[in-house]
Give the backbone structure.
Amino acid sequence: MHPEITILGKTISLYDTMYAVGFIGMFIMCFLSRKRYKLSLPRTLVYTVYTFIAGVAGATIMGYIYTYALDVASGGTYDPNSRVCIFGALLFLPVFMFIFSLFCGDTFRKLMDYMTPGIFFILASAKFGCLLGGCCYGIADEHGVYNANLDYTVFPVQLYESLCTLAVVIILLVIAYKAKKIRTGSLYPIGMILYCCARFFWENYRYYEHDFEQNYIFGLTFWQMFAVISIIIAIIWLVILYSVKGFRDIDLTPGRSKVAIAIDRISSGSAEKNRKKHAEKAKEHEKKAKELKNNAKKNKK
């Protein structure tokens, strides 16, 4: 694959382009499901933008953690290709979303359920961006795909990760819309378990230059270790959610903040304008209907 293309003299990074595709996809999902969660269009836009920024922040934090961990393991000789690790978006997003729930006027669990399918769609898009950009590539494979950065063919591990993550998105949407006994706040841990199981498997086909990357701890790669940790956390999350009544019933939103009030004012303002427009149109239709009735009576006479 080629990491960049040139259109009308401008060079475009395919990796960054897939992030844009992911953001648009997440917004569309949130837009289509906003009525189900009783959310206005302004809230949908604010939530989508915040989630995207929080995801980038989480990926950046994890990038520094990953670099530091491998630098220690290598004795200070590790030179990272990138300081952004998208796994961090999944791990740190609940923290950022919990903080946001204290100000936005919606509960943490509702917020997570609303954004979860879109979050995993961005992840799927980002992994496909890795394929196009030639990073995070798999082991050498003569039957694989050509990597322009390496000038040889490799196993398309990014493609399979992307497809598996898209499958996770579909499963989450089916659960959200079809499952009758699903508890609010369940979608994210379910998605984490499904994604991390797939990630753990596909890590066996990823290429690592150094032995300390391939065998970081107990024969696992760094990301396999975090996949296991994430699965354990997600299982605990679900157990608490389904078994501890006091936890699942508590309202984590302390009150309406200035941010929530401002968003609602924008929403109510646009809603009021729409109501006035509809009322004016209704009056016009009523007038036309009366005119038609009067004309019909005159013609009969």
Summary: Residues 258-300 form the longest helix (43 residues). The chain has a mean pLDDT of 82. The longest strand covers residues 140-147. The two ends are 79 Å apart (CA to CA).
